[in-house]
Amino acid sequence: MVVSEDQTQREKEKQLAAATALRWIRDGMLLGLGSGSTAAYFINSLGEAVRNGQLQVQATATSHASDALARKAGIAMLEPRRGLRFDLTVDGADELDPQLRLIKGGGGALLREKIIATASDALLIIADSSKAVPQLGRFPLPLEIVPFALPWVLDAMEALGGAPVLRTDPNDAQTAVQSDQGNLLVDCHFNALPDPAQLAEHLQRIPGIVEHGLFLGLARAAVVAREEGVMLLRPGLEPVPAASVSELL
Ligand SMILES: O=C[C@H](O)[C@H](O)[C@H](O)COP(=O)(O)O
């Protein structure tokens, strides 16, 4: 596989954003752990700090893959239970706009990610520079669908102006990808989402859509690594160098 200079730069930025997020992790915190390649860098860095005795934390992961990675990294894992709330969730994103509205779910983990983000006092996004966009929608919107509902959900998405595509195995177009819950995933192409809140309302009314990948009003801050430095973005505030902010919460 040929890896372009751009891809190499993106990977470096993901690692840098993930490592920067560690500066806001405090001893004793209960953490939500995100999914995807950027979150994996964070889990590995966190695991290293735990194994070195620098940090003691407990966590719940947003996917089977992240759970396995975190256990392997030596992080103490918590099962879901009544009353459990997280101090902070650290997760990646497929797109984030200046108001820190997000598209998530490119890795299929959107449902557990939204559950854990909602059970957290704060959601911190870690991202490479390609994820920060002026307007959401170039990345197709992921949806988690109950299998029985698929045909009607596809019709409903077309009626909303989207072009829905069932997510299949990249090596076998006949095999649909299943989420950790055993549901189907649909990627809906819109090109641009001028009113994400209105779209989210429509999606919530379509039976069979278990969850959609619009995360609105959930992210407290985003660490975005760029060639010129690592910035902290917060809704309604000018971006500042991440190193200048000592307390996030
Ligand atoms: O379902 C996956 C998640 O929403 C990921 O956080 C998102 O797809 C970003 O993944 P990556 O860090 O690999 O770009």
UniProtKB/TrEMBL annotation:
Pathway: Carbohydrate degradation; pentose phosphate pathway; D-ribose 5-phosphate from D-ribulose 5-phosphate (non-oxidative stage): step 1/1. It holds the Pfam family Rib_5-P_isom_A. It comes from the Bacteria. CDD domains: RPI_A (cd01398). Its EC number is 5.3.1.6. InterPro entries: NagB/RpiA_transferase-like, Ribose5P_isomerase_typA_subgr, Ribose5P_isomerase_type_A. One of its GO terms (biological process) is D-ribose metabolic process. Coiled coil: none annotated. Substrate binds at residues 35-38, 91-94, 104-107, 131. The active site is at residue 113. GO terms for cellular component: cytosol. The keyword Secreted does not apply. It catalyses: aldehydo-D-ribose 5-phosphate = D-ribulose 5-phosphate. Keywords: Isomerase. Belongs to the ribose 5-phosphate isomerase family. HAMAP family: Rib_5P_isom_A. This is Ribose-5-phosphate isomerase A. It comes from Hymenobacter jejuensis.
